[in-house]
């Protein structure tokens, strides 16, 4: 009985407290999430300066309901705002698709341009892969690939990159062979290459991916892409050629998207990758924080084809991606160059500052050497040096941490040695790391001239020929005074560039060295 009375009293206290609830301050609960299903938004915003590559096996636009619905497929594409779309299983004028050009239809609905690659003839039409893209490519092509059912790749080349859309064979041996062929093809472009599609392979440690990953980076999301609904396999991919390198911003498989039922649109989920937009400077990448100094002998911008082409030379200089470029063989307002200040024209094309040193008066103008630089120097100086048949010059620019000189040595050994001694004295006076770049007019590294070079200077540039044809000697150099140590992180001679023929632009190849600790 006593316990019963205690229990009744406890209940009375509880109800008394509850009856006072209306008088309590419940404001702290105002921002609590209400009970029930919440509205979730599925969007995939693209960052500024990104390039978005989307890949989608569209199953000839027939969804899992077996209804061909172009609006539905286009809604997925439009919702992702891609720059390039790689499509697989595309019909062109087939019976099952009611004689519709599917890729053109999707292009019209997305406001993009397009290119189709036929894999096989099918039902009175064609079946294959497609590309949708913004802008106009430099070139497009279809590359046929092996398979029990023949395969293909649709390829579009743009100014700074290449995109490949493909759907590989069901047979492993044909997938492996396709990877080899596509790798060889991709390398010929000397550009960033994105390859995307249905690879028909989910064994990441199998033969196909073991071979592929020797030359390609698998950069897409690790989420599964097939089939829609269960998504038990990862067979759709985006990969990039390792050289030139790319920077991946993000990647996702699109399971949900505002305004469209993705799962019913196809039997594959679409997949995208966002990349830092390529600039065309990826062919010879420079480490962050490094300083790049380059050299280029120009022959007054006249190529081996006999054409003076400032656009061609300017593109090469821009693609060098150098902080400082030393140039030799420059005309300034001469008759043969139609009164053009060549260095100034190149500076405008490269968006750099220009500094010229006259060697001689020539045909109503001047002929000499110069330097292009991204950063304005602390000081500049110009020196004239004796030559056997004509005067020579050196252009010197000083920065806070180092000094750079550009010159073109004489053909005479004694005059070369005399000029070298003069420059050593002048540059030593700066008491900081000193670099000398130019056309040394000597290919024998055991000569008396080079014995003097090697006694007081470090040879930094790559041990490669800089002469395009003929004897193909190493005539252009980057050296530094031994009095100050410098750390070279990379050195190369540029023999190939995308979009411009280096072998025609001049009789010499450009070269460069990268340094750490000088910025």
TrEMBL record:
Signal peptide: 1-21
Annotated keywords: Endonuclease, Hydrolase, Nuclease, Signal
Domain Endonuclease/exonuclease/phosphatase: 54-268
GO CC terms, sorted: membrane
GO MF term (any one): endonuclease activity
UniProt GO BP: GPI anchor biosynthetic process
InterPro entries: Endo/exonu/phosph_ase_sf, Endo/exonuclease/phosphatase, GPI-anchor_lipid_remodeler
Entry keyword Signal: yes
Name of the molecule in the record: Endonuclease/exonuclease/phosphatase family protein
Organism: Bacteroides ovatus
């Amino acid at each position: 009985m006593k316990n019963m009375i205690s229990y009744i009293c406890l209940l009375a206290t509880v109800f008394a407290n509850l009856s006072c609830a209306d008088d309590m301050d419940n404001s702290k609960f105002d921002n609590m999430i209400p009970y029930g299903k919440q509205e979730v938004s599925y969007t995939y915003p693209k960052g500024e300066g990104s390039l978005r590559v989307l890949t989608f096996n569209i199953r000839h636009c027939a969804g899992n309901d077996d209804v061909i619905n172009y609006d539905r497929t286009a809604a997925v594409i439009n919702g992702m705002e891609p720059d390039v779309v790689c499509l697989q299983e595309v019909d062109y004028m087939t019976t099952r698709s009611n004689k519709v050009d599917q890729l053109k239809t999707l292009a019209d609905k997305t406001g993009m341009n397009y290119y189709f690659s036929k894999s096989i003839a099918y039902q009175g039409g064609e079946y294959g892969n497609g590309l949708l893209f913004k802008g106009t490519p430099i070139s497009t092509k279809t590359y046929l690939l092996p398979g029990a059912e023949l395969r293909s790749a649709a390829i579009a080349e743009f100014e700074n990159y290449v995109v490949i859309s493909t759907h590989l064979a069901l047979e492993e041996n044909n997938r492996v062979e396709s990877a080899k062929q596509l790798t060889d093809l991709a390398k010929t472009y000397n550009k960033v290459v994105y390859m995307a599609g249905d690879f028909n392979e989910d064994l990441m440690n199998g033969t196909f991916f073991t071979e592929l990953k020797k030359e390609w980076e698998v950069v897409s999301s690790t989420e599964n892409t097939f089939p829609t609904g269960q998504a038990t396999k990862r067979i759709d991919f985006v990969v990039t050629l390792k050289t030139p390198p790319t920077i991946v911003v993000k990647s996702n498989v699109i399971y949900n998207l505002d305004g469209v039922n993705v799962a019913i649109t196809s039997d594959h989920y679409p997949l995208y990758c966002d990349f830092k937009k390529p600039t065309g400077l990826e062919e010879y990448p420079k480490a962050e924080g490094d300083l790049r100094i380059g050299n280029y002998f120009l022959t007054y911008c006249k190529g081996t084809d006999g054409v003076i082409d400032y656009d061609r030379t300017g593109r090469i200089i821009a693609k060098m991606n150098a902080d400082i470029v030393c140039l030799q063989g420059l005309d300034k307002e001469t008759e043969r160059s139609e009164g053009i200040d060549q260095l100034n024209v190149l500076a405008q094309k490269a968006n750099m500052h220009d500094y010229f040193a006259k060697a001689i008066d020539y045909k109503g103008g001047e002929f000499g050497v110069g330097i292009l630089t991204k950063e304005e120097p602390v000081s500049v100086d110009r020196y004239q040096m004796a030559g056997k048949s004509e005067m020579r010059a050196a252009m010197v620019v000083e920065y806070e941490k180092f000094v750079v000189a550009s010159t073109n040595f004489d053909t005479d050994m004694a005059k070369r040695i005399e000029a070298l001694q003069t420059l050593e004295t002048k540059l030593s006076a700066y008491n900081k790391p000193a670099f000398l770049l130019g056309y040394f007019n000597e290919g024998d590294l055991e000569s008396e001239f080079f014995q003097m070079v090697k006694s007081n200077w470090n040879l930094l540039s790559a041990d490669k020929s800089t002469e395009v044809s003929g004897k193909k000697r190493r005539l252009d150099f980057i050296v530094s005074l031994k009095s100050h140590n410098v750390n070279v992180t990379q050195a190369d001679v540029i023999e190939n560039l995308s979009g411009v023929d280096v072998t025609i632009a001049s009789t010499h190849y450009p070269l460069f060295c990268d340094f750490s600790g000088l910025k």
